[in-house]
Hints:
This protein has helices at residues 2-27, 49-54, 56-68, 72-86, 116-136, 149-152, 165-181, 189-195, 212-228, 252-257, 335-343, 363-370; strands at residues 33-34, 39-40, 91-92, 95-98, 101-104, 140-146, 186-188, 241-245, 269-273, 280-283, 286-288, 315-319, 328-332, 349-353, 374-380. β3 and β4 form a beta hairpin. It is of the alpha/beta class and 397 residues long.
Amino acid sequence: MEKFSQRAFLLCLLTALLAVPAGTALYSRKDTTAYYENRSLAELPNLTAEALWTGTLGADLESWYSDHVPGRTTLLKADTAAQLKLLHRPAVNEVVIAGDVLLPLLPYEERAAEEYPALAAAAAEPFGKLSAHIRACGGTFCYVGIPEQRVYFRDRYPDYLSRHNTEAAAGDAAYARAMAAAGVDFLDMGAVYDAQGHRSEYYSAVDHHYNYYGAYAAYRAVLDHLAEAGWDLPVLTEEDLEFRELPNPYIATRNRKLYNLWPNDERAVIGVQRDPVPFTRYDNGQPSDKPLFALPEADYLPATYNLYMGGDFAETVLETDRPDLPNALIFGDSFTNALETLLYASFNETRILDLRHYDGMSLRAYVDTYRPDIVLCVQNDTFYYLGGGNNNVWEDP
Length: 397
């Protein structure tokens, strides 16, 4: 009897041990992405001799199990709620609750101010070569530098946390000086926003981008800057647009990490043209019927910054069939997305690249192939000193 009990216990234990991963394997077929974490979930690894020999199978299985254990999202959401509402922690899931805005938790280590001039000169050099090449082709180049949300709201950080003041002050200033020294026309939107009163309504409280009002201010600043350079372009004035607040909850990047548990009544805004400029769109070389604003299917569904142009694409082309207007090339990070819904209306053809994803040809070759009249680089200031991506702008022949 005792031996039977022992065997029954072992059988039950083994069944329980196998049931959880078996249930996880069945459950894992339902989800391939983690919505709140904005990433793909690990796939069930294949059992191969190589994976067993190298020892990667165990690590891959652990990652897969961690991603697909039943109730994972519920448990993470409950943990986030406890940290926010019971423990009142100032930073949760690497998000800082800074009064009425959400900001990223930053490491205390950052570069010293004296390091930035040399770094800025090196970063500006390829843009100087690109600018000279575009001028030689008869075009105009302008680099539009935009503060990231954490930089714009850096004074909201609690005093006991790092806000990377040196990066935001010394780093940005050194970059602007280096661009000027390299012969690059640099439009500092941080200075423009400051001159306009550094309005809090220009930036999202829950996302790392500006909002549509901030994007519109940047659009007008860009067109004013191009007008000073001699370009006569049509402008979408505030009277030409209906600024419309969407009913959807705006979850965005910061509150998304908090499982949308931070109290927030912010709504995304779009600018609907009263007399729309029609366009033909191509994404990654294929005809596309995507609109300027990819709205959620229902009012209760959350909206993110990806509603502008439908998010990032390697290449987008918008043709308006107005050959009397110049052609433009815009490249840069996701801060271009909201701008694209406005800028295209000022050009005949607008080509948009994100060099983090585009690999069809080098940027120099792209300029030589399509000969744009105006080239704009749009990047946020936290990317100034990063290599690759939209900083990879020049290859010597």
